[in-house]
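pls read this stuff:
=====
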Amino acid sequence: MTDAEVLRSFYSPQLFRAQGHALIEQLAEYLEKVIPSEGTPALPVLPPRAASEVLADWSAHLSGEPIVEREPGEPAGLERLRTLVARLLSDSNHLHHPRYVGHQATPPLPLAALCEMIAALLNNDMAIFELGPAATAIERALLRLLSRKLGLAASSDGVLTSGGSLGNLTALLTARQQVATDGLPLAVLASEQVHYSVVRAAHLMGLGAEGIVPVPVDADHRLRVSALPDALREAARRGRRPFCVAATAGTTVTGAFDPLPEIAAFCAQNALWLHVDAAHGGAAAFSERYRPLLGGIELADSVVCDGHKLLLMPAPLTALLFRDGRHSFTTFKQDAAYLLEKDSSADPWLDVAARTVECTKQMMGLKLYICLSCYGPRIFDEHVTRTFDLTRRFAQLLRTSQDFEVPVMPSANILCFRYRPAWAGDLDALQESVRRKILASGEFYLVKAPLGGETYLRITVSNPLTTEADLSALVAAIRKAAAPDESSGSPQQEAGAELLRAPGRRS
């Protein structure tokens, strides 16, 4: 075949069908290993290989000539595809594993992953309506639903962005446009626990290190409203004009929800924009039990909410919503006659590129739209409620144990805790050591977090398949990893397994 004929053959529906069947079968077998119907998963939570070894292997796969010839009886490159996918699965973290309790990453619904394939194959750009008509309408309908869930006004509007960092940046850029600077450099008032993307956004906006004025948190790690007047005065001392308070609904370290009604009242009294980073906690809007955690969010000027945190979607999928929908159309307004027409009769929502940093943008709303349409919102109510409940029960059980410390009870599905046996000396070093050993074993994936100048272990319960038995096994694994004598691991493991059944009392 000529090169042109070879290239055309790669678009063959028959080849696609063969590749698709092979790939889906391989991924289904993977799910059977990581989510068995009974028994223990056949795979570790994360690969034990060193970074240099992984890099060497993946570099080698690109060093040979492309394979276009057929294996005997198979379409072109199918065996190579299977080999690469097998290696990819082996070298990746397994978020569907019930013992992945690490970062705020969710095990995506398999249907949502299939929707990603549809979006990738269609590859409709969303800069303007005529480039992605269905994608634009889907995004619009989805944003309206999310606005209603969050209790925002009917006049609200927004846009989907590729991640919360971009959403936070866009919100702060919009807020800045609404403020008369009086010639003074600007500042954002933000909790000490604010996500780093807010600080990064301030730097990208040219506000500099002095452009973020930190606000202390209370004992529950929520922004302390009584400290906001002092933050205003600190901004004035720096010669800054505050224009925004950045609050959080579901902080990264502890999952805390800032007191939004009180913050909103302060912002109203001082003519400040209120932005709420609800990237993590915004999904509580789907839970009948935990919706009150978001009380006051309807008073925010802008809100960011991630679908890839607690709504079981592949990343990225972030909704940026404005209470006053007109703000959605002002930040990036500019002339681009080759793309954006100046037609006053056209509905402004049609051209997404006029409202976001992104021009070429994924059809990212499709996955959540189809899952909501096929499964209904109740599935997300069940997931959010269950993971929040399970994390709270686990925290309470740890508090009843004499050798664990829980500094603050969780509001959501994030929990910080420390293992502190009576014999321990340097507790920070102990947490580091325990985590390293557990990661090396591949049995669990958990992370660490600084809190009050100390090191804590941190888990995020995002997997709907994680059970109390898994968390009990985590306790056993921690005790085993911390044991001074490795041979004493077995009694520690048995003690950990009993934690959820017969916990000891802690003074």
